[in-house]
Amino acid sequence: MRLALLVEYNGSKYHGFQYQKNVASIQGTIEEAIFNLTGEPTRIKGAGRTDTGAHAMGQVVAFDANVAYSPQEFTRALNSYLPQDIVIKETAKTNIFFDPRRDAIKRWYKFKILNNPIRSPLFGDYTYNFKGDLDIESMRIAGNMLEGTRDFAPFSGALSKGSMSTIRNMFEVTVHKESDLVEFDFVANAFLPQQVRRMAGTLIDVGSGKLMLEEFYKLANSNTLGAYNKVLDAKALYLMNVEYAIPIFEIQNNFGVWEKALIEANTI
Questions:
Q1: Could you read off the pLDDT of 138-182 as tens digits, one per residue?
Q2: In sequence order, what DSSP letters do the residues of 137-172 get, joined into one string?
Q3: How far is CA 174 from CA 47, 111, 118, 156, 185, in A?
Q4: Is residue 78's pLDDT more than 90?
Q5: Which of 37, 122, 161, 190 has its Cα between 20 and 30 A from that of 147?
Q6: 3-state secondary structure string, 97-111?
Q7: What are the residue numbers of the active site?
Q8: For 265, which DSSP code?
């Protein structure tokens, strides 16, 4: 049968999601845990290949296995083989044709900014620290310009295939600020390599006055691959959720706990 896993992880110690020989990856670590539990070598597929250091609250992976466990038992058993920075939140049985990447209709990424002139020892490893003032309204206007079906080549890194389309459907871009925490939320059907981190960089440039809205508009509509080449650190990037036409998992992610803790810690 094919199983789907809802996965949360702290990516700080990993070289991204995708398996790489001789370095730690999320995929390799989960595959090793599955082997230790079932005795079966397997290759999992993920909904998104998060970058080195990036995190996830709602990554989805799938694989085929011959196991006698119920989904609930499988979750508990597999977690006993995983390190503390990776956890399976839920296991679900799917049809044999389910593909977590190809079947996804929406992906939600969040980029977190600590907008404070003083660095944070507690949250510095999980946010991008910007010390200057940010014009939130200008960033919201710029974010709105990115919504819709458009060519996101200006915000893309190198493509694995030269013929790959750079057209994506951006359903929503939001900018939210509470206390010292500024969050960018990007929801699209799919993303290009480094796209979120490059878009976050342009929004910060707009908010800081480094890039005027007119200049941002020209850049965003230039259709030039990699036109914006500033790539922010993946430690501030989170894959929050992957949506499918038919829901797979029963639990609802509580995405507000971490943010609330960060806000409260910075106001003490």
A1: 999 999 999 999 999 999 999 987 678 999 999 999 999 999 999
A2: HHHHHHHHHT-EEEE-GGG----SSTT---EEEEEE
A3: 22, 11, 25, 20, 5
A4: yes
A5: 161
A6: CCCCCCCEEEEEEEE
A7: 51
A8: H
